[in-house]
């Protein structure tokens, strides 16, 4: 069986690594990189660290407005899919690469498999929500990471082709945590003391494109009165350059880091502050308290027991959440057993259900 996998953004490289390893044991995989994340710090380093195979096709689309970016991806993906004639097309998550891959394959009558199907923020003016809802509607195989995701799909009338697989980012973390601890030098390089700093990331358009929200977040980070390490996403850096927002100590801006360094920074942090869905999960899996810089989360399981708290972009709420008493012990294992990739491959080997 030939499986064509579409990736384009940093979180998708992480998810694709365990899947690629599992699928290539029994089948042929064609890996397509749309180029959505294209610089070395957001792309190349992940392929190297995760031992992800070199892409068979690199579309070189790059950044741009949603419509233009998705349109270019759709056009170029259609040509690649026609040329490769795969049996299945696999897409990940909720980016424009996800949407383009889903539409291109569905229009060519190739069964689509959506990894992370069923996630919902229930905020329709959020681009990621549109991407994931549309992807689920045209997918044949729906790989739900949690029971919540399965239930979300059922409420929308989608039950056929749904498989509860567990979360593939749990696979990735379990496979690479030891390598991160052994190989990463980020703690010594940044002269950090375990448990004595906060790790923060901001990249969602809802925060970066709104100067008032971005200012609130940066103010809150400065008011924490402890070292705050911020690996700066290119979008956020560009947004800050267009404002009079000042980044002041103890906030420390660094360049984006690779997957292994990010795992180590999360594992050793006192707390994580982020608007990233993936980092909410990774913090949970590493038993590190998290504050989400949004008013909602697709990963509602992380809220149980206080491991994650929603604080939006309000400085007062962020500070209160960051200074709370952390939960004790370890969070419940709600994201699976690290074998999601194998379940996905097994599902893809079955006769696909009829298209909805």
Remind me, CATH topology of the largest domain?
Rossmann fold
In this structure, how is the largest beta sheet organized? 7 strands, parallel
Write down the domain tally.
Answer: 2
Helix content: 40-55%
- CATH H-tier superfamily of the largest domain: Glycogen Phosphorylase B
Oligomer: single chain
Could you state the order of secondary-structure elements as H and E?
Answer: EHEHEHEHEHEHEHHEHHEHEHEHEEHH
What is the level-2 CATH architecture name of the largest domain? 3-Layer(aba) Sandwich
In total, how many beta strands?
A: 13
Rg is 20 Å
The proportion of residues in beta strands is 5-15%
Low-confidence stretches: none
Computed structural class: alpha/beta
The tally of helices reads: 15
**Spatial sequence of strands, sheet with the most strands:** 3-2-1-4-5-6-7
Termini, distance in Å? 23 Å
CATH C-level class of the largest domain: Alpha Beta
Inertia-based shape: globular
**What's the average pLDDT?**
93
Detailed description of the structure:
This protein has 15 helices and 13 strands. It folds into two domains: 2-167 and 337-348, Rossmann fold; 186-322, Glycogen Phosphorylase B (Rossmann fold, 3-Layer(aba) Sandwich). The strands form two sheets. A seven-stranded parallel beta sheet has the order 3-2-1-4-5-6-7, with helices on both faces. It has a six-stranded parallel beta sheet with strand order 10-9-8-11-12-13, with helices on both faces. It starts with a strand and ends in an 8-residue tail after the last helix. Helix 1 links the parallel strand 1 and strand 2 (28-33). It is of the alpha/beta class. The longest helix has 19 residues, at 66-84. The protein has helices spanning 10-23, 44-49, 66-84, 96-107, 127-138, 147-155, 168-183, 186-189, 205-208, 211-222, 234-241, 259-268, 277-285, 315-322, 340-348, and strands at 2-7, 28-33, 57-58, 88-92, 112-115, 141-144, 162-164, 198-201, 228-231, 251-254, 271-274, 290-292, 308-310.
